[in-house]
Amino acid sequence: MRKSRLLVVGVVAAALGALPVAYAIGASNASSGLSTQDLALIGGVIQLVQRDYVHPVSAEELTDDALKGMLTRLDPHSDYMNQQEFEETQSDISGKFGGLGIQISEQNGVPKVISPIDGTPAAKAGIQPGDLIVSINGKTTQGQSLNKIVSILRGEPNTKVTISILRGTKAPFDVSITRQIISVESVKSNLEANNIGYVRVTEFGESTPQDFKKAVNDLKQKAGGHLNGLVLDLRNDPGGLLTSAVSIAGNFLEGGKVVTIRGRRSDDQQGFDVPAGGMLLPQQTPIVVLINGASASASEIVAGALQDRHRATIMGTQSFGKGSVQTVIPLKGHGALRLTTALYYTPNGRSIQGQGITPDDVVEAPKDQQVVGGLELSENSLQGAFSNPGSLNTPAPGAGASTSAPGTKDAGKPVYSAPIKIDLIGTPNDAQLKAAMTFLDKTHKSTTGEGQVPQTQAPKP
Question: CB neighbours of 179 closer than 8 A, spacing ≥ 6?
Fold first, then answer.
């Protein structure tokens, strides 16, 4: 049976994306380099544990743990999912699942919150980007796999779970949250003053492209058929499907390249273009994309493409820096692998891995709007993260080299900032949004001449 490969670029613990067909693992190891002695060693250790360990452990449990250990040591985003965990990802795919609504990664063996999902129990309980989950129901999370953490956090709706949060230098504190069925609304929109549209994308799911188009078209209709500008808010958006990111970016580009991926295999080396004629807004309509340290993967693909193609001004703070692609490979009847198979590059050949997108205009959230004691978010903080490989167009510059867009004022080593408080995003008090609105209003007026004092010719003497 042919292997189906699903490209996932999010940092969520459970992979997002359409379910591919299963791949049957063959018995042959002739081309893998795995010797008979290696297999005998693994099997012998499993037998020893089963025979001599103080408590009984099944061979299935030991095999699952061996596979998890093998995958998780590779990088922060590769993992093995057993059959139950793999089946649970299907609910993530549809955007409806039971739990708290937290999207997490891992830092030094402890779950780290990338972002709570808007409107979910986690967001309502005050969970913030950068929070470390140090225990669940009184039991430590240290050393547990992300899939295991997700499994523990999930449960029957209306049941409670208590998590202990470490935020900055504060002492750990407990938060009790009631589980609910999570229905993700990935696109939110509003028509702001002066006919400027605001669209927030919280994740790149299957339905996000359709919902996004509808939101922009509705805003245009409310504005009398024409928007004077658009804010695309990708702050705290941890990613999702590569195909959704390409589709969203294509709404603002007159065809051409959005992103390129490069891996070891020939089918992991391809470019993703969009056709001409799909723009939702005229070329002259100014666009601002807002990003921050919790904007990752698919968010960075969109921001990087619009920055390289000079279609939008990127504002906010340095993005997360996850530039790797995961392929979900089902193992027939035995769960699935989530394996890092490629890195992605912006249209100009920049790698975002470990560096992120540097805004054209760095706008920090005011101190009183930042998460108090919040941790700065970046791919580099994750154990085993890849260093930046350099541009496709130049020799690899090394781990510390900049991948900032040419001409940006903050080129050099990325500077990360504490995240904005979740409940302020998109509100009238949102200082970063206000800055974007002011920029778009000025840009529109300077382009159209609106608000300028007409110049009259002085009478001749």
Answer: 98, 99, 100, 121, 153, 154, 155, 156, 157, 158, 159, 160, 161
What are the catalytic residues? 297, 308, 322
Sign of CA dihedral 281, 286, 291, 297: positive
* Angle, CA of 319, 197 and 231, to the nearest 5°: 15
pLDDT in tens, 349-391: 999 999 999 999 999 999 999 887 776 778 988 888 889 999 9
User: Dihedral of CA 122/127/129/134: which sign?
Assistant: negative
SS3 (DSSP) at 73: coil
User: Going from the N-terminus, what domains does the chain have, and what CATH number goes with each?
Assistant: 96-183 (2.30.42.10), 187-447 (3.90.226.10)
CB 39 within 8 A of CB 29: yes
Element (H, E) at 201: strand 196-201
Q: Are strands 361-362 and 313-316 parallel, antiparallel or unpaired?
A: parallel
The token duo for 234 is 């990708």
CA distance 355 to 282: 31
At residue 192, φ and ψ (nearest 5 deg) are -90, 180
